[in-house]
Every structure is written in C-alpha cells, then in structure tokens.
Hints:
GO biological process, one term: DNA biosynthetic process
InterPro entries: DNA/RNA_pol_sf
Number of helices: 4
Strand order of the largest sheet: 1-2
Protein name: Reverse transcriptase domain-containing protein
Distance between the termini: 39 Å
Number of domains: 1
Shape: globular
Radius of gyration: 18 Å
Largest sheet: 2 strands, antiparallel
Strand content: 5-15%
Amino acid sequence: MPHSAVVRTDKETTKFTMVFHASSKGQGHKSLNDCLTSGPPLNPRILDVLLRFCEFESAFCSDIQGAFLTIGIAEEHRDYLRFFWFPDKQDSKSYKILRMTRVPFGVTSSPFMLAATIKYHIRKYK
C-alpha cells in the first residue's frame, strides 16, 4: 500500500504523521479498502447531532485524525498490519518491515473501530 510521511514542524504534539493510501489500486488488483468492510453504522445521524446542539448548553468538537492515533492496536493483531519502509528511496533492496501500533487514518474500517472504541469506553465508565 502506498504511503508517505507528512512532516509538520509547526505542530506541538504530532510533528510526523504517516498517511496510508488505502484506496490505491495496483493494475488489475483491488485496493485494501475494497477488501475491508466498513462495519455497521455506529455514528449518530446528523439530525440527532444537530438537535443535541440545541438541547444542551455546551458542546465540543475534536480532531478526528488525532482520535484515530489514540487507538492502540493489540500486540497480537499487529502482525496483520505490517508494511514495508524504505529508508533509502534510491535503494529498493534496503527496507524494513514495520508493524502499525495505531489505527490507520483513511481505511474503510477505521470509522467503525473509532466508534466502537468510544462506545466501549462509555459503557465501561458508566
């Protein structure tokens, strides 16, 4: 899966973010997003969200990309999220095999994993 680094020196916390292009297709091949299911819709309907903004005195919003970066991948599942890293772009034989430790942003199943994680923690602390 093609990926690239986004470097933001102006940011305080996340100066370096990996962007994975999960919709990228090779010639005659499917993309990663084509092979994944998005899961059932767990996000609230937009009408419900707008009505809640009118109902309560305060509201909040968040950085959705940052939310994905806070969800860790269990150690036993990281082998399913391996990728090649080429430190030297000129030398295709020099590479490392790395494993993701966080939920990747931009993958079809990521919104479901985020919503399921939020619901899990809400139920856990109720």
